[in-house]
Amino acid sequence: MGGDSAPPIHLSYSPALSMLFQACSRHLRDGRRCLTVSSLGLLALFALIALPRGAAAQRPLKVYISADLEGIAGVVSGDQLGPTGFEYGRAREWMTGEVLAAIAAARESGATEIVVSDSHGNGESLLIDQLPDDVRIIRSWPRPLMMMEGIDSTFAAAILIGYHSGTTNPAGVRAHTLSSATLAAVSLNGVSVPEAGISAAIAGRYGVPVVLISGDDVAVAEARQLLGDVEGAVVKRAISFHSASTMPPKAAQQLIRERVKAALARRTAFKPYIVRAPVQLDVVFKNYRPAEVLAYLPMVERTTAHSIRFTGRDIVEVSKFLEFINTYEPGIAP
Fold it and tell me: What is the Rg, in whole angstroms, of the alpha carbon atoms belonging to the chain?
């Protein structure tokens, strides 16, 4: 510290530190006091630099959970999938249990906000009175972002619970894409995609990676082939379209809890699944007339007797189109 004066020091890290150093520069005659002030200020400055960026005001960890039913442990047929099935009530409990396991794991991993999308059938399958009070739930249809409604760029991770393989896969329990009754294939930019791929593409539009998928072994393998090394919770092994070797519900829930924690612990290792815009959507129907009638729309091209093509500006526009063709009915009311 030489000389009687020194220019003031300006620090952008902390106004308090800047004041400390400027006070020191004004009182250089008292070297001991200046040394003490400077030392304390430097220590504080180094502590701030050593902390992760934003550690003082950490970004909230928001987690999005999309839940289907066909991939839930114990679910194998229509007996569990709709209100007329004799085991549908029990299946709703199993589905809710697996979602609760994912929520608990997300909380243990530091999640501050969780949105759950009830994405099976009528969109009203989860027993919402069993979910935590601070969780937000997306229910019923239609939704512009389908199974990922409510996601945006503020989320850190997406989790897919109870998903199944796609309609073009020859294996997997209840394999289908969006509609088991009407659709035979769905492709984005020439790549055949299951529901997991569509959901991941919508999440990817907002920079959010899928970090985990649960379901049968075929669904998990199919998702990994498309999305990369995401965490997987295999809760049953497919034997046929309507048969599986399944874990009991409690064991499946414990597995999901463990895998979700593992996924969120390495969430920065995952990358969003990006489908480049414009997005070419190809849909193959199981019947003739949907392709014929949709081709009346000027933005739709009929490519075969059962197929159409639609090009959207991005995956959000494609999602809205898919929701339209799967939801609209001439007699829709109110």
Answer: 26
b/e per residue 297-333 (b: at least 16 CB within 10 A): eeebeeeeebbbbbbbeebbbbbebbbebbeeeeeee
Task: Please report, rounded to a whole number, the percentage of residues in the chain having pLDDT higher than 90.
Answer: 80
- What is the overall mean pLDDT for the chain? 88
Question: Cα separation of 135 and 112, whole Å?
Answer: 10
Length, in residues, of the chain: 334
Amino acid making up residue 159: I
Q: Quick one: tokens of 21? A: 């150093």
Does residue 314 come out as left (phi exceeding 0), alpha (psi in the -120 to 50 range) or beta? beta
The half-sphere exposure of 19 on its side-chain side, counting CA atoms within 13 A, is 3
| Residue-wise pLDDT tens digits, 43-80 | 444 444 444 444 434 568 999 999 999 999 999 999 99
Q: Supply the pTM of this predicted model.
A: 0.83
Count other C-beta atoms under 10 Å from residue 259's C-beta. 24
- Which residues, listed in sequence order, are joined to residue 216 by a DSSP beta bridge? 236
**Strand-pair category, 279-285 with 136-138:** unpaired
In this predicted structure, the answer to whether residue 18 has a pLDDT above a threshold of 80 is no
**Whole-number Å distance between alpha carbons of 43 and 41:** 5
According to DSSP, the β-strands at 157-163 and 183-188 are: unpaired
* Locus of tokens 């150093």: 21
What is the per-residue pLDDT across 135-155, written as a single tens digit (0 to 9) for each? Answer: 999 999 999 999 999 999 999
